[in-house]
Amino acid sequence: DGGITQSPKYLFRKEGQNVTLSCEQNLNHDAMYWYRQDPGQGLRLIYYSQIVNDFQKGDIAEGYSVSREKKESFPLTVTSAQKNPTAFYLCASSAGQDSNQPQHFGDGTRLSIL
Amino acid sequence: AQSVTQPDIHITVSEGASLELRCNYSYGATPYLFWYVQSPGQGLQLLLKYFSGDTLVQGIKGFEAEFKRSQSSFNLRKPSVHWSDAAEYFCAVAPVGFQKLVFGTGTRLLVSP
Questions:
Q1: Nearest to A26 by CA among A76, A67, A73
Q2: How far apart are CA B85 and CA B80, in angstroms?
Q3: What is the pLDDT of residues B66-97, one digit of tens each?
Q4: Which of B101, B102, B105 to mutate against chain A (most A CBs within 10 Å)?
Q5: CB-based contact, B39 to chain A, within 8 Å
């Protein structure tokens, strides 16, 4: 079945450590997104990519980095510069850039600080 | 700036009763509108979407939503709630022509026996 796979499901980060969250899709979608979800705040956009080798900052990009070397993969790195990384991270993809293409979501990665 | 308001943080409904979740948006033109559902520890699943045309939109799992331009609202409804509908529901908007969703803060639905 086509879908979005996020791994790991749970991740723990030590102080000063960078961690990378994986997102893979086999839907042949061009666009991919990373969101952060905190209780009571809904979803906030971190980064998005409309095509391979191109990505743009979202609303809360500070302390995060991404790459888009392959169409199916859009990994997110949470750097040590992100001072409050504890959250639920969701990856999504859509068939095209236009907003009439619904976004499909993975099952998320929960990141916690040790 | 675009914004989405879901005024109810929590709603409790008895099983079998009807449900209405409220969503209001602020945007200069009519955007695309979406409702998503999230079960605990899971990702979001699209329930329905509105782009244009008929203002009453049917979705999956027996849900429907009505777009009211005069009220800038897109409320989600279900005639008879099942215990499996307990989840968090998010309304989202996106400007026409650009794929950048703005989400509301969500409404958590609790279903009582």
A1: A73
A2: 10
A3: 999 999 999 999 999 999 999 999 999 987 76
A4: B101
A5: no
